[in-house]
Design brief:
Length: 76
């Protein structure tokens, strides 16, 4: 099911994860990802745009986790 993910190198995923986790750069002290995770934990993440924003900013990180999990399963 995720065989396409095995073909993607780690470096582009890592760069995308870092950039999307830090965006937007001008909104100090916290990024959108941190803001949306705080909203999720507090239960205020209800707007569809906020949910989409959380998914968009966290997708590369989630893909890295899946890729690492698949890699660890192959070594076993």
């Amino acid at each position: 099911m995720f065989s396409w993910l095995d073909k993607i190198p780690f470096l582009p995923l890592l760069i995308a994860a870092i950039v999307l986790a830090l965006l937007p750069f001008q909104s100090l002290p916290e990024s959108h990802l941190v803001e949306k995770i705080r909203m999720l934990v507090s239960g205020t993440l209800v707007k569809p745009l906020d949910i989409f924003d959380l998914l968009m900013h966290s997708t590369p990180s989630i893909l890295i986790l899946i890729k690492l999990f698949r890699l660890s399963k192959k070594k076993e």
